[in-house]
Write a structure and sequence with these properties.
heterodimer, A: mainly alpha, B: mainly alpha, 2 domains, 24 helices, 8 strands
């Protein structure tokens, strides 16, 4: 009845992804610090932070939905992760395709917003508003990049996209898909919540936005969620454009490449305001995206 | 003769007759009993006929002048079933919100009208019931707001004349009104055996586009919808927006079935797509985006949902316009899922208005604690509309995505991506402004929604979850009458050849994920409950005197980013045209009826002269 091997793989992958996600967060902080000529925290710092938060003796809550928000976010992140074919592990990817995964990757932010809204803090509300507007702004180029990809490979199934790339070369070797990758990478910056699109949390402006009220174990869950999400999103990128991977090490290298590009961009550019971001997304990335989809038609 | 043979007359007459009875015996309880009989009977009859359709149940009325054909086959059963579910929910809602026999009568008339439209087998019956439905819904709006009803009326009249003209052209050229023979004739016409020319077809196409576009609220004919949907009994809007607007979508389906072949040969193709469907797809895509943006910027709960309705029906039109089997599946599935989630939204609105008497976002807040069951229903509706797997709204949207992308309509598919993000934005506005944040003090004694409304909500909430987890149920039925190209692997899993969606596995893994997260939560320290005013405010103390929730102009930055586009509005354009027409008529009237006897005698002379020249005198 049960496919025990699959379940063990899923559990193993979950542990690995959470751990690596934390390490990615550490790398992000360390690399950013080195670029700014600081020493920076050790790479395992996010794990320590999370354990500390979990160990808090008391946490506060604004009600049921406030508690449910982070839990829902982490649950959705885990679900999204398990539907992506990661390296040589197919996990559950035969049950859901690109559209489902793309949706599942967006659900966590909705969960965080749900919880944040119920806290009654105006900073949270402002963060939610910014988050949704960023989503509205980035969705058009994001969609176009995915459409170009699907049109070129002719399938929505992630495992088939990987297999086709093994046969015909990585997506980015196709000129039209290279454009799509550039578009996707710009949007990716917003998906990770990094500069110049860190409008949602906007540290030192609206006090971390939706996350402002969360502390203690709630924050620990949100940290874990961020780690899983980071791993899933970088893996998603690698699967779509960098030919997937045949083992975890290869995947790790590709994920790190994606991550470092994001970090470098983030450390150069200052933050957009929300209407600037919307206008930007609807101009260059959209134009590039339209060219990409027309080329792949 | 068995019961099933009487199914069609019973379906058509029980709602209307019980509506009249409810109006005649306009007393508490009596009225509600008749109303419930009328509202629930379609669901019962539809349930009984399930699986007994065979080649279709037929019923013919001979009026002497012409015959009316009705039939209940798979497609009309499906649509009638959707209408019946929504009608049942509406009936329960109206038990709570309506105290008037007038409203019951016209609400039930529109149920009869819509069922008649779906069951008609010829254009005569189709048109008659179409008008009954339009008239009844007009009367419902008239009672609440004369101006909104007038707008609806004028646009409906334009639509009705367009349809009448199109039907007249078809009748003149083919000599038949019955769908089956008309379809045959149109195929003959494609071979030149029936004198239906290309010009005729273009004209008929344009006229049908106007006629059905008005009812479906397709851009740029959507302007009546936001006013009409909001200015009526909100329980009735459940049916008005959830089911009645689908008549327009059904009209487009009918156009495809009857005229598709001829339209394809006459209008040709554009970039490999049949032109007539391509236009429809683009109209749908524009509707999705434009109405979506307008929904985001609304400050009134009813207006937001009304625009969102227009936007979601745009998805259906878009999916039909894709023209492939998957597109049709997506369209029919979205007819179902939009009916159930938007119907649910309107019932929630009815409950909110009943309990608070407010409609603007700035007056609401913090109601989640006061109306927990309604809030749970709202959460289901929100998740389904936003298309979160595994809800019904996601399954249908997934099909539309796959259809549009695999039919190589990339820009149309891009509009769907944008539209779904916009949907996220406006449902969150709905969630935040109404249910969360600090509660205005005048809402402190708000109670939970009354039982009949909650029953109505439950009727609509169940399909949202059931058909979300088991999309195969719906697609399997759709496979009976469309060549969908969507394979049903099991009740839970559907696949399109290029993609798969196993709703049960997504649901299960989501539950597992929630369980893992929940475990972390439970094993963490106990959480202490603190009030909403105890939040981080950079050191500023928060008191109850200041309501810190953002309720007005929530999406102001978006309005700023869209400033250029918001300057143009079809609504204002039509208003200006109407004003010009009114001024012109005034000018004519004042010019001719100037009260001068001499002028009147001149008119008389001129008329006599014309008649004399004509040879009448």
């Amino acid at each position: 009845m049960f496919d025990w091997k699959l379940i063990l793989e899923a559990i193993g992958m979950l542990i690995y992804a959470t751990f690596m996600g934390f390490i990615f967060m550490g790398i992000e902080r360390k690399a950013m610090a080195r670029i700014q000529r600081r020493v920076g925290p050790p790479i395992y710092q996010p794990i320590i932070d999370t354990l500390k938060l979990l160990g808090k003796k008391e946490s506060v809550s604004h009600g049921l939905i406030y508690d449910f928000g982070p839990v829902f976010a982490l649950g959705a992140s885990i679900a999204a992760l398990l539907f992506i074919p990661i390296a040589n592990f197919q996990l559950f990817s035969s049950n859901a395709d690109l559209i489902v995964v793309a949706y599942l990757l967006e659900v966590p932010s909705l969960g965080i917003m749900l919880g944040a809204m119920s806290s009654g803090n105006p900073y949270s509300a402002l963060g939610v508003q910014r988050g949704l507007l960023t989503m509205v702004a980035m969705q058009l180029p994001y969609g176009l990049a995915l459409i170009a990809l699907v049109q070129h490979w002719g399938t929505f199934k992630l495992s088939e996209i990987v297999a086709l790339q093994e046969l015909h070369g990585w997506s980015i070797t196709v000129p039209a898909l290279l454009l799509a990758m550039i578009v996707f990478d710009i949007v990716f910056q917003a998906m990770l919540g990094l500069e110049p699109f860190d409008i949602v949390s906007a540290p030192a402006e609206i006090s971390m936005g939706p996350m402002v009220e969360y502390g203690g174990k709630h924050a620990a869950i949100l940290f874990t969620q961020h780690a899983v999400q980071l791993f899933a999103e970088t893996a998603f990128f690698a699967v779509l454009f960098l030919g997937g991977a045949s083992n975890l090490l290869e995947l790790l290298i590709k994920q790190l490449a994606v991550l470092f590009i994001a970090i470098f961009i983030a450390s150069i550019y200052p933050r957009f305001t929300i209407d600037q971001a919307a206008k930007f997304f609807w101009k260059w990335p959209t134009i590039l995206g339209i060219i990409a989809v027309l080329l792949t038609m | 003769m068995t019961f099933v043979d009487y199914a069609i007359p019973l379906l058509l007459f029980i709602p209307a007759v019980s509506g009249v009875l409810a109006w005649l015996f306009d007393r508490d309880i009596v009225r509600e009993i008749f109303g419930l009989i009328g509202g629930l009977s379609p669901l019962v009859i539809i349930a009984i006929t399930y699986g007994k359709l065979g080649d279709g149940i037929k019923w013919t009325v001979d009026t002497g002048v012409f015959k009316l054909f009705f039939q209940l086959e798979h497609m009309s059963w499906y649509l009638a079933a959707v209408a019946a579910v929504v009608a049942a929910a509406m009936a329960f809602g109206m038990v709570s919100t309506s105290r008037s026999g007038y409203e019951w009568m016209f609400a039930l008339f529109s149920v009869s009208g819509l069922l008649g439209v779906f069951l008609s087998g010829d254009f005569a019956g189709f048109f008659l019931f179409w008008e009954l439905m339009t008239f009844a819904s007009f009367m419902m709006v008239l009672r609440y707001n004369k101006r909104a009803s007038l707008k609806y009326f004028v646009l409906s009249i334009i639509g009705a004349y367009a349809m009448l003209l199109a039907i007249a052209i078809l009748y003149a050229k083919t000599g038949t009104l019955e769908f089956q023979s008309l379809r045959r004739m149109v195929v003959y016409a494609a071979y030149g055996m029936v004198p239906l020319t290309k010009t005729d077809m273009v004209l008929v196409y344009a006229l049908f586009l106007v006629a059905f576009g008005v009812k479906a609220g397709t851009w740029p004919l959507h302007v009546w919808a936001p006013d009409a949907y909001s200015e009526t009994n909100q329980s009735y809007t459940t049916f008005f927006s959830g089911a009645l607007s689908k008549a327009g979508a059904y009209g487009f389906v009918l156009m495809f079935i009857l005229l598709g072949v001829k339209l394809y040969t006459d209008l040709g193709t554009f970039r490999g797509h049949p032109l007539f469907t391509y236009i429809l797809a683009w109209l749908g895509a524009i509707t999705v985006v434009v109405a979506g943006f307008l929904a985001v910027l609304q400050e009134d709960l009813r207006k937001l949902l009304a625009y969102s309705s227009v936007s979601q029906v745009g998805y259906i039109v878009l999916a039909l316009g894709v023209g492939s089997g998957i597109g049709f599946t997506g369209a029919f599935f979205h007819i179902l899922s939009h009916a159930v989630f938007k119907g649910l939204f309107w019932l929630i609105t009815a409950a909110l208005i009943l309990r608070t008497g407010k409609t603007r976002f700035e007056d609401f807040g913090g109601l989640a604690e006061k109306m927990p069951v309604t809030f749970a229903m709202a959460l289901i509706a929100v998740l389904s509309l936003a298309g979160i797997p595994p809800m019904a709204g996601f399954a249908s949207k997934w099909l539309i995505y796959e259809a549009a992308i695999s039919a190589h309509m990339p820009l149309v598919a891009g509009a769907i991506f944008l539209g779904s993000a916009i949907a996220f934005a406006y449902v969150v506005r709905f969630l935040y402004a109404i249910w969360f944040g600090q509660r205005p003090s005048d809402l402190d004694d708000v109670e939970e929604a009354p039982l009949p409304l909650l029953i109505g909500m439950t009727i609509l909430a169940i399909p949202n979850v059931v058909f979300g987890i088991a999309p195969g149920l719906v697609v399997r039925f759709l496979n009976k009458f469309i060549n969908t190209g969507v394979a049903v692997n099991s009740y839970y899993s559907i696949s399109t050849g290029v993609g798969t969606y196993n709703a049960l596995s997504v649901a299960l893994i989501l539950v597992v994920g929630l369980a893992i997260a929940g475990l972390i939560y439970i094993y963490g320290a106990r959480a202490r409950r603190i009030p909403l005013t105890n939040t981080y405010q950079s050191g500023n103390p928060v008191t109850e005197d200041y309501n810190l929730s953002m309720r007005r102009n929530f999406y102001r930055p978006l309005a700023e980013a869209l400033e250029f586009w918001l300057r143009y509005s079809f609504d204002r354009f039509y208003a200006r045209v109407a004003k010009i027409a009114e001024d012109f008529a005034d000018w004519l009237r004042e010019g001719f009826y100037n009260g001068n006897v001499q002028a009147y005698s001149w008119y008389l002379t001129i008329v006599l002269l014309i008649l004399a020249l004509w040879g009448v005198l």
